[in-house]
Design a protein that fits this description.
Helices cover about 35% and strands about 30% of the residues. By secondary structure, it is α+β, with helices and mostly antiparallel strands.
Amino acid sequence: MNFSLLTNFPDDLETEWNDLLAESVTHVPFLRYEYLRIWWETRGGGEWPDAQLALITARQDGRLVGGIPLFFTPDHQGRPSLLLVGSIEISDYLDVLVRPGDLQQFLNNLLPCLDTLPLPQWKALDLYNLLETSPTLPALESAARLHMRNYQVERLQHSPYITLPGDWETYLGGIDKKQRHEIRRKMRRAEESGVPMRWYILQDAQKVNEEIDALLNLMAQDEEKAAFLTPAMRVQMQKTIQCAFEVGCLNLVFLEINDEKAAAYLSFDYLNRLWVYNSGLNPKFNEFSPGWVLLSYLLRWANEQKYEELDFMRGDEEYKYRFGAKDRYIVRATVSD
């Protein structure tokens, strides 16, 4: 494998990168070239202002066979480190980019290569937000042993998901009886309230910017999310959502009550799954349980459309489990001297 170091995101790499991603050990929307490039433009919405890009590719006979999007920075403890582009806060799942059959060779070659490329002196390869089931983890441990490096793995967060059976009633029948009753009760209460109410999925290209603003305004109704939405993070969110719409993988849904936005869910529609990325609620309409009602509509629709899974991604909020979510986890893997 011939390794190269890139310090920007060249346009002519995009198609090759995404084609490789489609066959990679981990295929998630946060590894798409478009997303990574936008993340880098804002340094993760301002999370890493002091960062140096190290986009590393591996080729055999001119063909792209591996990639790892890294950046160099002092980590939050001040240790000079190489982190995955996308780390840490706003990219739920990350990994290396390589086909299963090339994984071990790629990692075996990568570790010594990192010492020979023109990179600043680093102390740790610090990989956040890998799924606990990723084949990269045992392969990276093996590569670390081969080169006599220290390897550590740490469980970080819950990442619950719902497997969808493809039928609304079958889905409801598979969750706790009390929660099934609660979902039906809240949907019925909203529908029989006599108050004008509708839910919809954004489809009109002319309204994308308007609806992005509406989502961000709903998010900002929550004190923690309002603090999260710094000016740089708003730019990050706007660009990411716009890009997702342009490439056809945006699912942005709203519930309106009395012609006002009451709730929203932002998801990526990707690989026949919905990846729930964020949400917003207007507390003015709390009596109608708008978050529960909209999520119920979204789940019913996703079952009818034969989606395989609704992935809540990071966070162990109680409502996810009330809707029948099962746990999986993300981890942090570190290789150091």
